[in-house]
Design goal:
The chain is an all-alpha fold. It has helices at 5-11, 13-25, 30-40, 46-78, 82-96, 98-103, 111-119, 125-158, 160-165, 167-207.
């Protein structure tokens, strides 16, 4: 069967930038890697691709931060299952601060709660926006160039047959899918352990007479 992936990308080139933006907005790196591989084949412009991923990732986390600042406590009351993930993210923010803001996108499980949790923390909006802009750029470049390098590597291995059947793109998609599936499974177990430990620790602190007041701003006292 002739899998003309190359022709498909060529016909819908502009849509690939839009999809990259949306995918990055939702913190999904799979499509960014795939698009990076397409750029290695000359189907997409690498820097337009990085720009779309960068902007999407930045805007997505700014939105989640705003939601956390505006409705974070109400969301935790409405959806108490979020509490464990938020606790883990806030614990890591307290421990690593700038390092965590720059790297949370690469931490599976925790990253889903991070921007929401940081919106509930005392960190100011301008400071988060500046660090988030840098972090989004690191994330976009990392996965886009990873896809690009994979595309170059598989093209060298597959040779001329890759150009006829789009096997470079198909191989990248399959390999990345398998890798991410394994990473997600292992990371989920680690994240569940962290959540359990964090919930136990916060419960113990809450019942301790010497427990310090929380640093998370209340709904009537937004952080600066």
């Amino acid at each position: 069967m002739n899998i003309d992936i190359n022709q498909l990308i060529a016909e819908y080139r502009d849509w690939f930038y839009i999809i990259t933006f949306v995918w990055a907005f939702l913190e999904g790196e799979t499509f960014v890697i795939f698009a990076g591989a397409a750029a290695s084949q000359g189907h997409l412009h690498m820097y337009w691709l990085i720009g779309a991923a960068w902007l999407g990732s930045f805007m997505g986390d700014q939105l989640y931060f705003w939601i956390g600042r505006r409705w974070g406590h109400k969301l935790l009351k409405r959806f108490p299952k979020l509490q464990g993930g938020v606790n883990v993210a806030l614990d890591m923010l307290h421990k690593y601060h700038v390092g965590f803001i720059l790297s949370f996108r690469f931490i599976y499980g925790v990253r889903n709660f991070s921007s929401l949790a940081m919106g509930m923390s005392p960190i100011g909006w301008p400071r988060f926006a500046g660090l988030n802009l840098i972090a989004a750029g690191l994330w976009a470049n990392s996965f886009a160039w990873a896809g690009y390098l994979l595309g170059v590597a598989f093209e060298a291995v597959l040779g001329d047959i890759a150009k006829d059947f789009g096997l470079v793109m198909l191989t990248v998609f399959v390999v990345v899918g398998i890798i991410l599936f394994i990473v997600h499974r292992r990371s989920k177990a680690n994240f569940d352990r962290r959540v359990a430990e964090s919930l136990a620790e916060h419960k113990q602190d809450a019942t301790s007479p010497e427990a310090a007041p929380t640093a998370i701003p209340g709904p009537d006292k937004p952080a600066p």
